[in-house]
Every structure is written in C-alpha cells, then in structure tokens.
Specification:
Layout lengths: L1 H25 L16 H17 L5 H10 L1 H4 L16 E7 L1 H4 L9 H12 L3 E8 L11 E6 L6 E7 L3 E8 L6 E9 L2 E9 L14 H29 L6 E6 L7 H7 L3 E2 H5 L17 E5 L3 E8 L10 E7 L1
Helix pairs in contact: 1-2, 2-3, 7-8
Amino acid sequence: MKKRKSFLTRLALALNLFLLLLQLMTMDVLSLGLEIPILSLGVPLLCLINFIFFVFWTLRLKWPALLFLIAFAWSFESWQLLYQFKSKGIITSKGLHVMSYNVRSFNRLNWLDVEDVPMSIANFVKTTAPDVVCFQEYAKDNAPLFKEYPYQVFLPYVSNGRIGSCIISKYPILNSKKITFKASQNGGMQSDLIWKKDTLRLYNIHFESLRIDSKDTLFSPEYSKKFNTKIKRVFELQKKQVAQFETLASTNRFPEILCTDLNNNSFSKSYKTLASARVDAFKQKGKGFGATHQFSFFPFRIDYILAAPNFKIIDFKTHDIVLSDHKPISALLSWR
C-alpha cells in the first residue's frame, strides 16, 4: 500500500512539474526552443490546474507546494496579463473616455434571447457616456441612432458590405479610412480625433476570428485534427494581419489609441507584437480576469485598448453585460 501511495505521489509530482514547465513556456517566461502557438489559448487552464496542485500539496504540507510559488514569482509579470488586483481609490482625474465593443451585429440573427438588443446597447452607451466608442461587427441596418454623438463614421469590412467598423464621438473625427485584410471578411478603420486642440489617431480593428464552437476540442479524435488545422490557419492569418497593421501604423505621426477585437489572448504572438510599443489599459488599471468573450468557465480576454506611451491610463473597466458574445471595455486616458 505504501509503495503504491509513493508511486502515485511521484507520478503527481512529475505531472505537476511538466505542467508548470508548460505554463512557463506558454507564458513566454521560459524558452526551450519550442513554439506551439495553440497552447497559448490554454494558459488560464494550465494556471488553474497548477493552482489545484498547489492546494493539494499545501493541504498535505508537502514541499512541492513551493514549486508553484517559485513559478508564480518567476512569471509574475506575465500573470498580470491574466489577472489584476485593482486599488479601491476614487477616480478624480478627468480625461478622454474611450470604449471598445464588438456588438455582434446587434443580435441581427437572434443569437441571444434578449429583447431589442440595439436599444439596450444604445441605453448602455448613453448611461456609461464615453466620449468615443469604437464598434466592431457593426451592422448599419440594425444600429440605433446614438443621438448623443454628433460625429459618426461607418466603414464596411468589405466593399458594399453591411457589417464593418464604426466610430461614434462627441469630438470631431476626420480623415477616416478603411483598413482591409486580404482573404478575410474582417478589417477595420482609422480616424483622426480632435481632442483638446490636439490630433489623435484612432485605430478600430477586428482581426481574424477564431470561430470556436462547441464541437471544437483537442480530446475527440473526430474533431481534434480539424480544430488544430483551423487554429493554425487562423493564427497565421492573424500574424499577417498584425504585420500589415504595424506597417500601416509605422507611418502615423500622431499619438495613437488602438481599440481591437484581436480574437486571441494576451499570451499570443499577435498580442505581444501589438503591445510591444503600446500600453495595455487592462494591465495598467484593470480588475480581475478581465474576460471579454462570453466563454463558459474560461476567462478569455481577446478585446483590448492599447495606447501610445504618451498616454497615462487613469482607469479601465470591463463591463459585465450580456448584449453580445463580447463584453464592452472602456478606458479613461490623459496626457502624461
């Protein structure tokens, strides 16, 4: 009996060590010369499993509990991309209030069993009162009027399309241009915002969609291969789209704010490219997991507000409403 117990303990320790190493690799803390992009989607799950191991060892007063603490300390910077503790201080500073929201065509095909989604979204925006809203998956034919916003620009993702990007603003917006991606139904736009006599560049981008559904799994032989192939293709498209956007952004001479549905989490290569020279508003002032996609029991943060280093992030919020498959996010920004 003792030998069996000892074997199971060693097996649990070996599994815990393997999963901790995998977690550190996917968090890009430890590099062993291996790159498996699809695993970046599983970082929250790996963290949860390793935390359960930590509780298991702690309750038994066993030394392997220290492994989790060491890994946590080593990867603390990366943990901040997953979870944030927020101070309870009162916000007194004023600034530019920017919101980003994928509205999923205002429930055009009745995905949600919610009455009058367009009007509910309009009321939410009116109550929250951001200065600027960047919408993704905006269906012009289904959209409310947003009467409080005198400046509105809609640009379809594809020529003559009915779904695209839209920016509504209380401040003037000029020089709006469509951003298109080759072989994709997604895209975005750029606009110049006049705020406090300064010109800012707004980017509103919807990168390639993952299109994960209930049949997608790594454990079923029937769907595992299809899922892997689909994810690899999407990741490659996202990589190309991000590279195209960065080339475009490199020609910009104004301070920029990027609102995006990246369709990938903060441990992906695409996010790291976008965030390398920009400030992630969630990382600065977010709270909790900041999950933005309605994905059961899995914190999936795929929507971002990224700003140039010229900006100071005063506040950030993930709004807990269910009027789309995404949650809206907003940030309060000011000049440094």
